[in-house]
Amino acid sequence: MSVVRRDVAPLLQRVRAFLLGREHTQALRFEDGVADRTQPPPKIPDGPSQLYSANYYCLRDGRREVNPPIDLVEQQKQLAAEGTAPPKATKLPTPGQVYAWD
């Protein structure tokens, strides 16, 4: 049995399609337009954490990679005191031709 979708009158549908320049898609969901709930499970490839024998948690833990912040001013003062100059700031490369919008 076909379910009649709620919409405006056919004359107003044609006016709306003319004014939009395309067919209108409704935001309401009806049962015949929704995917079935009985879909097969996804086929996902195994990752590095699948086997317990190769699951090294300490290598994957992001908390172990955190270090205290670096004070750049103190580091530059130390380099100046040692006599080595800090590296010069170079101009960053641009990804290609730049388009002038003006």
UniProtKB/TrEMBL annotation:
- Biased composition range(s): Low complexity: 84-95
Q: Keyword annotations for this protein?
A: Acetylation, Electron transport, Membrane, Mitochondrion, Mitochondrion inner membrane, Respiratory chain, Transport
Subcellular location per UniProt equals:
Mitochondrion inner membrane
An annotated GO cellular component of this protein is: mitochondrial inner membrane
Principal localisation: mitochondrion
Q: Which InterPro entries match?
A: NDUA7 (IPR009947)
One Gene Ontology BP term is: mitochondrial electron transport, NADH to ubiquinone
Residue ranges for the region (Disordered) are 80-102
Assembly description: Complex I is composed of 45 different subunits.
- Its biological purpose: Accessory subunit of the mitochondrial membrane respiratory chain NADH dehydrogenase (Complex I), that is believed not to be involved in catalysis. Complex I functions in the transfer of electrons from NADH to the respiratory chain. The immediate electron acceptor for the enzyme is believed to be ubiquinone.
Q: Give the record's family classification.
A: Belongs to the complex I NDUFA7 subunit family.
What this protein is called in its record is NADH dehydrogenase [ubiquinone] 1 alpha subcomplex subunit 7
Q: Which organism is it from?
A: Drosophila guanche
